[in-house]
Amino acid sequence: MKKNTTAGLLQRFSLFLFLFTFSFLVNAQVITSPDKNFTMKFALEKNGVPTYELTYKKKPVVKQSKLGFELKDSPAMAEGFTVTKTDQASVNNSWEPIYGEQKSIRNNYNELLVTLTQKEQKDRQIRIRFRLFNDGLGFRYEFPEQKELNYFVIKEENTEFNLVGDHKIWWIPGDYDTNEYAYTTSKISEIPGLMQKATIDVHAQWPIKTLAVQTPSMMKSSDGLYINIHEAALIDYPAMNLNVDPKTFKFSAHLTPDAMGNKGYIQTEFNTPWRTIVVSDNAADILESKLILNLNEPTKYKDVSWIKPVKYIGVWWEYFVAGKSSWAYGTETNVKLTDDFTKLTPNGRHGATNENVKKHIDFAAKHGFDAVLVEGWNIGWEDWFGNWKEEVFDFVTPYPDFDVKALQKYAADKGVKIMMHHETSASATNYERRLDDAFKFMQDHGYNSVKTGYVGKIIPRGEHHDSQWMVNHYIRVAEKAAEYKIRVNSHEAVRPTGLHRTYPNWFAQESARGTEFEAMGGLAPDHATILPFTRLMGGPMDYTPGIFQTDLSYYNKDNTQRVNTTLVKQLAYYVTMYSPLQMAADLPENYERFPDAFQFIKDVALDWDDTWVQEAEPGDYVTIARKAKGKNEWYVGGITDENARTATVRFDYLPKVKNYIATIYADASDASWNKNPQKYTIRKVLVNSKSVLKQPLAPGGGVAVSIKEGNAQETKGLKKL
Amino acid sequence: MKKNTTAGLLQRFSLFLFLFTFSFLVNAQVITSPDKNFTMKFALEKNGVPTYELTYKKKPVVKQSKLGFELKDSPAMAEGFTVTKTDQASVNNSWEPIYGEQKSIRNNYNELLVTLTQKEQKDRQIRIRFRLFNDGLGFRYEFPEQKELNYFVIKEENTEFNLVGDHKIWWIPGDYDTNEYAYTTSKISEIPGLMQKATIDVHAQWPIKTLAVQTPSMMKSSDGLYINIHEAALIDYPAMNLNVDPKTFKFSAHLTPDAMGNKGYIQTEFNTPWRTIVVSDNAADILESKLILNLNEPTKYKDVSWIKPVKYIGVWWEYFVAGKSSWAYGTETNVKLTDDFTKLTPNGRHGATNENVKKHIDFAAKHGFDAVLVEGWNIGWEDWFGNWKEEVFDFVTPYPDFDVKALQKYAADKGVKIMMHHETSASATNYERRLDDAFKFMQDHGYNSVKTGYVGKIIPRGEHHDSQWMVNHYIRVAEKAAEYKIRVNSHEAVRPTGLHRTYPNWFAQESARGTEFEAMGGLAPDHATILPFTRLMGGPMDYTPGIFQTDLSYYNKDNTQRVNTTLVKQLAYYVTMYSPLQMAADLPENYERFPDAFQFIKDVALDWDDTWVQEAEPGDYVTIARKAKGKNEWYVGGITDENARTATVRFDYLPKVKNYIATIYADASDASWNKNPQKYTIRKVLVNSKSVLKQPLAPGGGVAVSIKEGNAQETKGLKKL
């Protein structure tokens, strides 16, 4: 975040709060962002319909757009309003995240709070709070406690995003249950023609029948404005999709319903999540925006000292490499938790065996990883998926060939943690009732982090991955985990909205199409250049990069799958995709084949003092530099899509004058995602703050750079860049 | 049960098992009951549709009726079957319930097990197991584990009960959520014309849109056959209503759907509940039938020594006596569990105060009651109902005026238990996730029994009180409670099906229109003569009898409500309605006004060596005598409907020759349910096994008799009956 270069003016934990409140009783209200680039105008239409509009550098971003709600069994809160109070405030402070891309985050906005009253509906009130930052707008609805509005059910939220043109958009289909679609890039007007093709098969999907896309929704206008629509602080409310009008370019909220088709059970006093619109004429600014984090609440956890980043390997990728291993232990396809699993017929391919786990622990210890994820350790995998079965797993009973206590001791002796795996098969009710036992089991056996999974159709049946009840479920799990000092990495959960600020032990999520799909059809070479502008806007992703053996026929000549990147691009991901949780996802033996490249994964930091997005264009390229937290080390990652390009890496964030050793991991000149992906060069050079690296990237390739201080001995003989 | 007089031939725990199995490969199979009164014929229709028919003493009871299933997304299991195996067996043994109406229960049946195969559906198999007892038929479907049928979803069960005539029927409307309807008595053909009127308002009801009634369904044919249709061992399956064809008199299964409209998620190996048809030409036999208990599994609990009957009073009836007390502490109507309830505005009418509870503990101790139920002790009652709110109660936080620890000590010092109350507001998800904490809290504070409540719309939203998920929920609660040695009395749960044999700590339920409705419109004077033939067929009811102050204008002259019985009829209920849990539901001060009548409630047993239904006719009268378990004490209760009648009480179960003191509690000659209901006589006489009491009962009245041994002093001057 470039503005953060001014952070030096602020002391640690300093709070600069300038609060001015005053009231109006007029129907149109205008606020501007602190830097004056944004203007937001609130107004009531003649029939008392609340609306807002947003401009950036005098260009319209969102035309007059309606706000409000349809309620169930109650008159709508959509019209007939009068403005009965307005308040304005300005805030400029900063705060320090527990982990993150920056040591300190500036929180600087002008606020407008409009109180609206429906005089003909027994004076029912709603408030709309707008916060206009230098990077965009956030607004939410607030339902104060009031006599005539204690409890109600939302039929739909009316919020509109009335866009001004036929923008380019990077989108995935609207869906109540999955975010694991591949991105389509098109004009808004082209979405209808592309929707069917875009709606590829995904486990337990529930595509929205009307035209809708998901958030974070990334767009670019023909005149070069980048617009990102998402939400912040999704708590006790369903996730929002966006209805699309391909002719008028009007987007509108489409909340995820429950089994009854209802879209939110509300008890006042209640605040909705924030609707966020991040805008810039520079794509890099979108990635540097901390607007969503700023709109989330600080954590209520008192002790956060135990919440630390994790670099891990796992018994995982081998499950995706055809025929190699299986989560299941037995050959049977109909098992119950009450069965005696020692009586099953072993399939001979079980991955989570004592021997295999020990091998991974050895590797993790040797190379300095914090943890080893082990999937498939617990009974129930024989028929875990697809049956809408409630009691799939008990989370405490290992397979006969996984010795919990022996492995606990083995790992502890080597200073490594085993990472727990709680696949729920989307049976949230079963997980909730076993949660205390499951976390107690972890605590008793030395586990301090868990990967959760929600593959399948949700139980309670009729709920969705993104419905209000499930939104609350994930938070319940995070809070319960915190009681046990356990970190959570959720897969197939609702996509993040910055809640890792409030629940910092929920430190990573999947919630998008990740590396596993490289083994199931592959990811498009531009996929990872889109993710930072979409999925990652909400929070850290457990993308599980680091696949060195990209051609999967290596394992089995019949396997035609391949990871659609060069090896070096996999290294770059550790920098381009921020997460406090990073996996080295490939098999240990593959890392042993490329020890020099592997060194970057071993070196790269997980937590950062500062971040500089050097160049970025969604769907094309991303180059990011970061400073390791508390260390004079910097890491740079640059990636490109299917096109070769030359990345420009600057070093102007380095302390002046001094030279540092940059280790540059680069694609070989004849490498590309589909030819010679494992060919790379590694060179060491001296750089200083004035250096500029022009680095060719292969098609589907990348660049990774580590920058460290070097003593005379180490720098001897190194050339300047 | 009259057959039990032969029980003397059997030793305790003796097992007489005569098992003959043999196989046929024909399509029609006939079995008879051990006493030859019943004949059941299984046959396949030409298209391979399985059917059964039932006769009793050569009269048809159920004409040829179809069996089978409609499945979701899979071909039906309804036709195309061939019989590939049949097995027969005979069983004659007896077992001892942990508590009950008899010390020993005879289990005597002939069994037919038919294995059916759908050759054109990949040899899918289903088994139907018929057990023909001397009191009727039970049959269930069994899905063996098989390659082509591991998991499936039931769309509907096809089971038919094709009745032979336009029987008289005592019925309540089919409903997915409530059993708390008043009974209607009519011909089957009259049901359509009466359904609308019968579907009175009940909290959280979901009347079935097509014509349906609930089970237990009690009928009487024009030629004097009594027929009762219900189910036994309802586990992991939705409850069954009965579709009614008012022209052909064909009834058929109508299972309770979930939110998706599905009617059961099945994993093989699986057995459905038993469908039960109890038949006799003597109404008393219906009440003596132990067929449903016999079809339930013995308990798996290892230690049952802690499961004992309970006689209790409670802070309860005062909530129904207009204006007297409230569950809620505060006047607020919008509260959250996170609120500080000490800050609420007290409404001044809170029932569960330290003072009031102590008064009840004193009374319980003085009169020998085991426990005091206290409702309204915990935070959340201010807005507990009607909002489909999930987090209504936490089950561990008392109101400010209820001192858990002080009351625990106060009760313990007096040898009385406080009975916990867990109203869930039908939020089963909330209850499940707090269950361990809630039971731990009980254990820590000396509670060993809990009354649960499920008032409102179920959460998971879209589930019903009687759907498969909730059926499993109640059992989960019972099993979890057993881990803490806690007894459960569930209100508003699915009606019982004999599961108190398997889960004996789930020792009573409401699941019907009980005494509370006497304060909300009143119960018809014949209501309690119907209940034993309907609701009580499944298991013990917490009917909460014992209301002495029947005219509720006593509390408030504007209160026009009244309990539609005489005082004596309330005494008789303790015998006519079997339960190991019995409440003396009236206010302590009312018992103090009638100490002589109250003596019967104090004396009456809760557990029995034997039971003799002396005379019974559904809707008209019931007279039952029982011998107290392990004591030479007998208790008789007789009730009538709105008509006066003379009950005939025999004493032929008394040991021969010897005289006993009978204390006869009788309606006064000018008493009736609506005039002088509190006028009664109490007389002591000597009776022996040859005595017969002809006792006039008032309209809406009853008679209660206690019979004890007396020494010379006690019997002196007593007349013979």
Observed structural traits:
homodimer, TIM Barrel, 3 domains, 32% strand, globular, signal (chains A, B)
Notes on the protein architecture:
Two copies of one chain form a homodimer. Chain A is built from twelve helices and 36 strands. Chain A is α+β, with helices and mostly antiparallel strands. In chain A, strands 6, 7, 8, 9, 12, 13, 15, 16, 20 and 21 form a ten-stranded antiparallel β-sheet that branches. An eight-stranded antiparallel β-sheet of chain A has the order 1-2-3-4-11-18-17-14, with no helix packed on it. A seven-stranded parallel β-sheet of chain A has the order 27-26-25-24-23-22-28. In chain A, strand 22, helix 4 and strand 23 (371-374) form a beta-alpha-beta unit. In chain A, helix 6 runs parallel beside helix 7 (468-483). The longest helix of chain A has 17 residues, at 428-444. The A-B interface holds A 145, 150-151, 153, 258-260, 262, 265, 267-268, 333-334, 336, 383, 387-390, 429, 432-433, 435-436, 460-463, 469, 472, 476 and B 145, 150-151, 153, 258-260, 262, 265, 267-268, 333-334, 336, 383, 387-390, 429, 432-433, 435-436, 460-463, 469, 472, 476.
Short description:
The structure is a homodimer of 721-residue chains. Chain A is an alpha+beta fold and 721 residues long. Helices cover 15% and strands 32% of the residues of chain A.
